[in-house]
Amino acid sequence: MQPSNFDLFADHEPVQQARAEQIGEQAWVLRGLALPQVDRLLPELDTVIAAAPLRHMVPPGGFSMSVGTSSCGRLGWVTDRRGYRYSSVDPHSGLPWPALPKVFADLARTAAEQAGFADFAADSCLINQYVPGAKMSLHQDKDEKAYAAPIVSLSLGLPAMFLFGGFERSDKCQRIPLLHGDMVIWGGVDRLRFHGVLPIKPGYHPRLGEQRINLTFRVAGSA
Ligand code: MD3
Ligand code: FE
């Protein structure tokens, strides 16, 4: 009997060479890289969010963020009167954050590798939920202990218009649409660029409904 292609590949990970778009010297968008993994990612995401519910953080002296946030992995991102920081305990439950699911860790490592960053091992995954109208103002990611490792992001659900800026808040931004399954990897000289997300437009995504979920994989603790 002649095996079909389906049988030939049945025992293997779905392999896909993503379309790569270079957006900075060491920053890449890998279009659709996560699509073959989505069926395995979403149940894990549900389990994590059930254990560590999304919450709207209140920055010191600021207003509640429009994005709902949770974490998994050894360290999670928290904010309180003292400011932002990473913590090994979820203040909501008083327990350690849920473990980083293997399918998340493997995907983040593969994405980093395709962007030229070998041996990426995230100790933190920040989960951002955007409902229509939610946005993220221009900022830099500076709360991690060291900047040697890149940050890897995965977009799921509704599309977003991502702002990729320079090293001063006032620098001109590139506008980059991010779609379901796209991954962005930025490190090295691009690690401290300002960036943000424009308000999400109303819509319905067949897999995630009326929301966008963004996962960012980080090395937050000391290397
Ligand atoms: C940063 N999240 O959680 S990730 C954040 O879509 C955050 O939820 C956004 O910023 C989100 O801190 C953006 C994608 C991204 C892509 C390229 C970058 C962030 C970047 C380049 C430089 C710095
Ligand atoms: Fe950021």
From TrEMBL:
Cofactor(s), by name: Fe(2+)
Pfam family, one: 2OG-FeII_Oxy_2
InterPro entries attached to this UniProt entry: Alkb, AlkB-like, AlkB-like_sf, Oxoglu/Fe-dep_dioxygenase_dom
Membrane-spanning parts: none
Keyword field: Dioxygenase, Iron, Metal-binding, Oxidoreductase
Enzyme Commission code: 1.14.11.33
Top enzyme class: oxidoreductase
PROSITE patterns per record: FE2OG_OXY
Chain ranges of the Fe2OG dioxygenase domain: 121-221
MF annotations from Gene Ontology: broad specificity oxidative DNA demethylase activity
NCBIfam families: PRK15401.1 (NF011930)
Identification of the protein by name: DNA oxidative demethylase AlkB
Origin species: Pseudomonas granadensis
Gene symbol of the encoding locus: alkB
